[in-house]
C-alpha cells in the first residue's frame, strides 16, 4: 500500500478504538519496552500524544524512564524541524498551534546526544519502514542523530506486509512495539 492510503486507513482504524481502551493498550506497550535491550543508555527521546488523535499515551513509558533515572528529551516543533529539550521538574508543556503538546523552552539537547528515540507512527511494515503524518519532522530529526541511535516505534496495530513508496532517505525502525507483539528489524 502507498503511504497516503495507509495514513487514511490507520487514522480511521485508530479513531474506531474506544478511548478507554487506548490507556490499557498503552500500558501494555510501555510494559513490553522493558524486554528490549535499550536500558543501558542515558538519553531517551519521547513524544507526547496529541489530544483527540487517539495516539499511544506515553505517560506510562515516561514513568518507566523517570523511575530508571533516565534523561528524558521532548521535541518541540520549530519551523519545519524539531528542537529538543530535557524534561525537568521546571519544564512547562503547552500545546502548539496544531495542538501538539511540547515544552515551551528548557535545556537544549542536541540530537547527537540522544541514544533511544520512541517514535509515533500511523503504520509500518515488516521491514521497519514507517508512516507518520507526512510532514517529515522525524525523518529530518533522525538524519541529525548518530547512526547508532535506537529507533523504537510504538503502534496500536500490527505490521503491514509492505509500504510501496519507501524513499531512499527514509530511516527504518529498529523495533516496533504493539500490544500483542514486539518486532525487531534487522539493519539494512
From TrEMBL:
Q: Which residues bind substrate?
A: 50, 55
Catalytic activity, EC: 6.3.3.2
Q: What are the GO BP annotations of this UniProt entry?
A: folic acid-containing compound biosynthetic process; tetrahydrofolate interconversion
UniProt entry keywords in alphabetical sequence: ATP-binding, Ligase, Magnesium, Metal-binding, Nucleotide-binding
**Source species, domain of life:** Bacteria
Which cofactor is essential here? Answer: Mg(2+)
InterPro entries, per the entry: FTHF_cligase (IPR002698), FTHF_cligase-like_sf (IPR024185), NagB/RpiA_transferase-like (IPR037171)
Catalysed reaction(s) here are: (6S)-5-formyl-5,6,7,8-tetrahydrofolate + ATP = (6R)-5,10-methenyltetrahydrofolate + ADP + phosphate
- Quick one: which residues bind ATP? 3-7, 130-138
**Does Magnesium count among this protein's keywords?**
yes
Q: Does Amino-acid biosynthesis appear among the keywords?
A: no
Enzyme class, spelled out: ligase
Q: Name one GO molecular function term.
A: metal ion binding
Q: Which family would the database say this protein is a member of?
A: Belongs to the 5-formyltetrahydrofolate cyclo-ligase family.
Q: What is this protein called?
A: 5-formyltetrahydrofolate cyclo-ligase
User: Can you name the source organism?
Assistant: Maribacter polysiphoniae
Amino acid at each position: 500500500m502507498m503511504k497516503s492510503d495507509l495514513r487514511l486507513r490507520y487514522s480511521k482504524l485508530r479513531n474506531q478504538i474506544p478511548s478507554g481502551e487506548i490507556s490499557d493498550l498503552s500500558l501494555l506497550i510501555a510494559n513490553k519496552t522493558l524486554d528490549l535491550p535499550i536500558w543501558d543508555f542515558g538519553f531517551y527521546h519521547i513524544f507526547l500524544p496529541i489530544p483527540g488523535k487517539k495516539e499511544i499515551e506515553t505517560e506510562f513509558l515516561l514513568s518507566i524512564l523517570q523511575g530508571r533515572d533516565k534523561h528524558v528529551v521532548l521535541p518541540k516543533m520549530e519551523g519545519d524541524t524539531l528542537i529538543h529539550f530535557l524534561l525537568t521538574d521546571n519544564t512547562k508543556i503547552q500545546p502548539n498551534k496544531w495542538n501538539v503538546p511540547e515544552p515551551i523552552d528548557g535545556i537544549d539537547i542536541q540530537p547527537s546526544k540522544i541514544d533511544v528515540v520512541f517514535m509515533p507512527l500511523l503504520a509500518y511494515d515488516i521491514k521497519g519502514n514507517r508512516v507518520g503524518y507526512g510532514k517529515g519532522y522525524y525523518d529530518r530529526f533522525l538524519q541529525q542523530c548518530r547512526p547508532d541511535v535506537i529507533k523504537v516505534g510504538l503502534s496500536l496495530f500490527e505490521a503491514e506486509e509492505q509500504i510501496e513508496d519507501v524513499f531512499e532517505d527514509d530511516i527504518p525502525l529498529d523495533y516496533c512495539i504493539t500490544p500483542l507483539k514486539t518486532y525487531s528489524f534487522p539493519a539494512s
